[in-house]
Amino acid sequence: MRRFACWLLDTGPILVLAVIAGAGSFTHIRDTAADHGQTGWMSWAVAVCIDLTCVMAARERQRDKKTDRPRRSWISWPVLVLSGGVVLSLAANLAQAVPTAWGWITAATPAGAFLIAVSMLERRAANPRPEPSPAIVPVLAVQDEQQDGPAPALLDYARRVADEHHAKHGKPITRDALRSRLGVSNQLASDLLATLRTA
Predict the structure, then answer these.
(1) Is domain 136-198 classified as CATH 3.40.1000?
(2) Which Pfam family, any one of them, does this sequence belong to (predicted)?
(3) Which of 56, 57, 147, 180 is least surrounded by Cβ atoms within 10 Å, i.e. has the fewest?
(4) Average pLDDT over the chain, rounded to whole?
């Protein structure tokens, strides 16, 4: 319950911003579509398509980063789709504005706020808070001077961490990632990794 409350306090404001800004942007897009011949349910469909395209493209960018998908150029397909959605959303918002500088700024605010909220949620999902290492790890990391290799308990824990990493990311864990998760030295992380690879 406490964890949910912390998550709500941390993420709640961004979700509220996303909902309110999305509703404002959605309304401008729907009205613009209706003004240009897409009446009835079609105006709603156009608004849904544009807003959801932005969300979908942002999530796809995040997925590409998580899977280390190689890119052939500086711009990827999700970035291109997101850019197109942003342009259409801003154009629809500006089309509904009073033709003054403040009219354009206030009309563009919902679209801008919606995109900022989506990018913040994407950023948080791509860089979650690191899980604290269990308190037993520093104790396990203390090596007996007469012992050859890492302690068995630490080796078992390192094996579980490496297996979880492989299951989640589809590739073997690196020394730096193992060192960060276990809170051990570079040398000990290298020893653990070498032992795991030869086991």
Answers:
(1) no
(2) DUF2637
(3) 147
(4) 80
